[in-house]
# Entry
Amino acid sequence: MTRSATETQALQKRIRQLAQEKDAVILAHNYQSSEVQDVADFTGDSLALSRLAADAPQHTIVFAGVHFMAETAKILSPQKRVLIPDATAGCSLADCITAEQLRDWKAAHPGAIVVSYVNTTAAVKAETDICCTSANAIDVVKSIPTQTEILFCPDRNLGAHVRRVTGRKNLVTWDGACHVHAAMTPDILLQGILAAGDADVYIHPECGGTQAAVDLIGAGKLSEERVKVLSTGGMLSEAKKAPKGSRVLVATEVGMLHPLRKANPEVTFEPLMPQAACPYMNQTTLENLVSCLENGRDEVFVDEDIAVRARASVQRMIAIGHTVSPQQH
# Structure
């Protein structure tokens, strides 16, 4: 659907009015569309936003993101009302493993510690020993005794990155992936890097080509100063330090370009794959944000027993630290 700039601004104004009337805080993930990010109170990664929401004075949380993110907010704010503009907005990565599959995997590896990426359902978090984000996964794994086997799920690419950095050969990965990041294969990533000339490169560790890029850095064929593997929060930190007039090739979901450009307007940020837009993230629109606030839909609930166990796995991670603060608007 095509809207004029005037229509977009009118919708955004209505959303801000409704948020005030309904005592709601609006959170938008970094991969949301630019117009949704711009109307939110805060943008960031899912865990940082959920932690912020727990401390926010508002009694209603509206999470512009995908379903597992709203679940995480509910887990950390059980006393608050959590809404998501479209409850059918799922996640190809979170869908890669179920709680039943994780229980079977644990049974085959007695004594192992389960580390789950926050990009998982509440039911999977409930079967997890400790959660992690892409920003703190290395610190989480380093906190576990070296002799202990680690089951890392669901992202094989992030898991491989963590195993490489930590040297933990007893870290076993689940064979899952985000379909958007998995499409950034070694060939596509390396072709993009070579075509980018002297541009810096930011690579999210979920990308399918991360290992190939790191191997070339290790072989001295790519510059470690130029090519960096970073979480979304790490990308924002690097962007703020990038020199005026420089160029950066960004290998992640294209929604991330908007916060990067806002963080440093003097730098040119270009997507590795312009078509790398998550269809689930883009299910949130200004129109269904208005409907969400007007009608109180779709509300997110988490079974109390699952929430208690899932909360414990998230809180163990929080105790380790290293999370990135959301951006306030």
Notes: The radius of gyration is 20 Å. The CA atoms of residues 32 and 281 lie 6 Å apart.
